[in-house]
């Protein structure tokens, strides 16, 4: 069992993470774009990025530890349970578009609260045109 300061990650995103990502992306993109992005996410290799950098690139606020979803993930970390990797859409430095955490924002925050330098497995793909 892991110590309370070690975040364990699964090898692959949970299958329900893809529809959750699509649901979020529906606020930002067309159905056709979402289909392309989700298909690409399913094929993208896993890379590892630090919790602090994922938050910075996404321009998202660190959620508090008492956020119900962050709290749930912190409990999983403490119990040594594996978290599902993050699904993300790459931002664009030239236009100032932030990276989108399509699924896993709460897991990133819980990981940050545990150790901001945690290497988080991420599937990241470019936005479609």
UniProtKB/TrEMBL annotation:
Name assigned to this protein: ParB/Sulfiredoxin domain-containing protein
Species this chain originates from: Mycobacterium cookii
Lineage: Bacteria, Bacillati, Actinomycetota, Actinomycetes, Mycobacteriales
């Amino acid at each position: 069992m892991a110590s309370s300061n070690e975040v364990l990650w699964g090898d692959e995103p949970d299958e329900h993470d893809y529809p959750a990502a699509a649901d979020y992306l529906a606020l930002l993109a067309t159905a056709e774009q979402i289909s392309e992005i989700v298909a690409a996410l399913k094929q993208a290799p896993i890379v590892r990025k630090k919790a602090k950098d994922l938050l910075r690139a996404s321009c998202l606020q660190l959620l508090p530890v008492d956020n119900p979803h962050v709290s749930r993930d912190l409990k999983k970390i403490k119990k040594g349970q594996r978290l599902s990797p993050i699904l993300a859409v790459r931002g664009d430095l030239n236009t100032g578009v932030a990276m989108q955490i399509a699924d896993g924002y709460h897991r990133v925050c819980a990981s940050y609260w545990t150790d901001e330098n945690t290497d988080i497995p991420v599937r990241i793909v470019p936005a479609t045109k």
